[in-house]
Amino acid sequence: MLDEPLGALDAFTRMNLQDELLRLWRERGTTMVLVTHDIDEAVYLSDRIIVMTPRPAQIKEILDIRSPKPRARNSREFFEYRARILEMLHLVPEEAGLSRR
Questions:
Q1: What is the pTM of this model?
Q2: Rounded Cα distance, 61 and 38, in Å
Q3: How far is CA 6 from CA 9, 23, 24, 25, in A?
């Protein structure tokens, strides 16, 4: 269980440690549950993202991330997943997001 483990780090250290988490995952095959408010981090590291509602916390949607790891943070697919999550959280209007496939 990883509860906001990288939240207090600068961006470059955070990205390096995200890659280290992926390395550990590949080597050990350990299931990890990551709690984060960082959408990019969730898309980069996760196979499945569970988006929660605010109080009371309930599952809003479960999103399977089907891109192979490691993921390119600047790929169209990465941005499409990110936009979809932002839409779910009502942080951007749906019409402003990238189209879904």
A1: 0.86
A2: 17
A3: 6, 16, 15, 16
